[in-house]
Amino acid sequence: MSSSSPPAFLQPALANLKHSPPPDRPHVTLTFAQSLDAKIAGQHGKQLILSGKESMVMTHWLRTMHDGIIVGIGTALNDDPQLNTRHLPPRLDSQPHSLPRPIILDPRLRLSPECKLLKNFQAKTGRRPWVLSATPTDDDRPDWQQRYDALSQAGASIVQLELSSNILPVPVVLEKLRRLGINSLMVEGGARIIDSFLNACSFIDTLLVTVAPTLVGSHGVAYGTNIPTGISHLRHFDTQAVGNDAVIILKSEKS
Ligand SMILES: NC(=O)c1ccc[n+]([C@@H]2O[C@H](COP(=O)([O-])OP(=O)(O)OC[C@H]3O[C@@H](n4cnc5c(N)ncnc54)[C@H](OP(=O)(O)O)[C@@H]3O)[C@@H](O)[C@H]2O)c1
User: Fold this and answer.
1) What is the 188 CA–ligand 1 centroid distance (Å)?
2) Best mutation site among 75, 83, 109 for ligand 1, i.e. most ligand atoms within 8 A of its Cβ?
3) Which N-terminal residues, if any, form the signal peptide (predicted)?
4) Is residue 14 part of a domain?
5) In a domain, 148, yes or no
6) 193 CB less than 6 Å from ligand 1?
7) Residue 183 DSSP SS3
8) For ligand 1, is residue 196 a contact (CB within 6 Å)?
9) Ligand 1 pocket check for 103: Cβ under 6 Å
């Protein structure tokens, strides 16, 4: 794998990104790392570094290829991710790598104003995070404005969807992001977000899963426990060995 450019196999796998997305949504790449026994985290959600160094670098290259990157608030609170490209070598032309817009699905504004995404934005090493929220319910209302102000002051751009639901429906999120100029979207997890996207699988163009040669055990966090059978439009496209991991790519036959 060349260290100064993305792994060659990513180009054909993501050839759809060169074309305009559908009018009502971005191109969607769902990607995550799992153990051999299909777990994405340890007991009680403990963050596990499942990917080896090489596949971690591949994921950071993937980030450079997308306009936006989504995680759910469960992941934002649990892992405090940075969603940047810090594992990549400097570009040959000394320009910075393209960073995707961090987007957090956070219907109830639970994100911490102290999170790394906001710290990085304040330090000018990260892009301004977008927080997609819902309309506050009566339960949320008492300190909603306080949380809204704290996040805004820390630098978050809060995009309030006209819904009072704790689950932001995938088609609504995608349509909103497309209208906000996101043409390509990487979805990184966690478990509930993966399940929601697999449940709305007609919106997925590319599914890229890194399978690490390790077993987590039954206490780990699983995904896909509630997805419909017969997701037939996602077909095998490529399998690559990346370091000790297997990277398995499925593509929509429509894209
Ligand atoms: N291995 C990997 O590649 C990987 C990647 C990322 C994360 N993870 C792991 O995943 C775990 C976190 O997963 P999680 O399931 O707890 O949290 P999550 O999927 O990150 O976030 C779920 C939360 O997002 C909000 N949400 C808004 N719209 C949603 C929608 N359409 N579908 C689902 N949720 C929606 C809800 O917030 P409210 O609760 O406020 O309503 C929901 O509880 C952590 O253990 C983390 O380490 C692993």
Assistant:
1) 9
2) 75
3) none
4) no
5) yes
6) yes
7) coil
8) yes
9) no
The answer, yes or no, to whether residue 230 has pLDDT greater than 80, is no
Q: DSSP labels for 83-100?
A: -S-TTSPPPTT-PPPPPP
Q: What is the domain extent for residue 136?
A: 27-252
Q: For ligand 1, is residue 75 a contact (CB within 6 Å)? A: yes
Mean pLDDT in residue range 190-217: 96
Q: Is residue 8 part of a domain?
A: no
Identify any residues that bridge with 157 across adjacent strands, giving them in sequence order: 130
**CATH number of the domain encompassing residue 72:** 3.40.430.10
In a domain, 92, yes or no: yes
Residue nearest to atom 46 of ligand 1 (CA): 75
- What is the total count of domains within the chain? 1
Q: Report the largest interatomic distance among the alpha carbons of the chain, rounded to a whole angstrom.
A: 54
Query: Distance of CA 66 to CAs 2, 27, 77, 219, 248, Å?
Result: 20, 9, 23, 33, 19
Of the listed ranges 23-32, 75-84, 134-143, 238-247, the least confidently predicted one is 134-143
Per-residue pLDDT, 3: 66
Is the CB of residue 238 less than 8 Å from the CB of residue 9? yes
For ligand 1, say whether the CB of 100 is within 6 Å of any of its atoms: no
With a 6 A CB cut-off, is 72 part of the ligand 1 pocket?
A: yes
Q: Which whole number is the average pLDDT over 144-154? A: 96
The alpha carbon of 104 and the centre of ligand 1 are apart by a number of angstroms equal to: 10
